[in-house]
Amino acid sequence: MVFNKIKEIIIDQLGLDDDVEITLETSLMGDLEADSLDAVEIIMAIEDEFDLEIPDEDAEGFKNIGDIVTYVGENK
C-alpha cells in the first residue's frame, strides 16, 4: 500500500519512533516539525522508491500526507 511505504519513508527520514501516529491528514511541517530540507529529502526518497519525478511546483502544493499518497497513486 502506498500510504504505508510513504509512512515508512517519513519515519526513516525524520528519525521518528515507529509508533508515532501518522495519518493521511498529518502535515509534514505542521505536525511532524519537518523543515524544508527534511521535506525535500522525503520527496526525493519517495521519488526513488516509486520511480517517479515530482516537480517542485507539485511538491509545494502538498498540504498533508494524503496529498502525497494521492499524487503517487495517480502518477506511478
Question: Can you tell me about this structure?
Answer:
- There is one protein chain.
- This protein is an all-alpha fold and 76 residues long.
- Helices cover 57% and strands 0% of the residues.
- It contains 4 helices and no strands.
- Helix 1 packs across helix 2 and helix 1 packs across helix 4 (65-75).
- The longest helix has 15 residues, at 36-50.
- It is globular and about 30 Å long.
- The two termini are 12 Å apart.
- The model has no long low-confidence stretch (mean pLDDT 96).
Please report the number of helical segments. Answer: 4
Q: What integer is the average pLDDT? A: 96
From the N-terminal CA to the C-terminal CA, the straight-line distance is 12 Å
Low-confidence stretches: none
Q: What structural category characterises the helix and strand content?
A: mainly alpha
Query: Biggest sheet, open or closed, and with what strands and sense?
Result: none
Helix content: 55-70%
SSE order in H/E notation? HHHH
Strand count: 0
Based on Cα principal axes, name the global outline.
Answer: globular
- Percent of residues in β-strands: under 5%
Q: Radius of gyration over alpha carbons?
A: 11 Å
Structure described in brief:
The chain is mostly helical and 76 residues long. It has four helices and no strands.
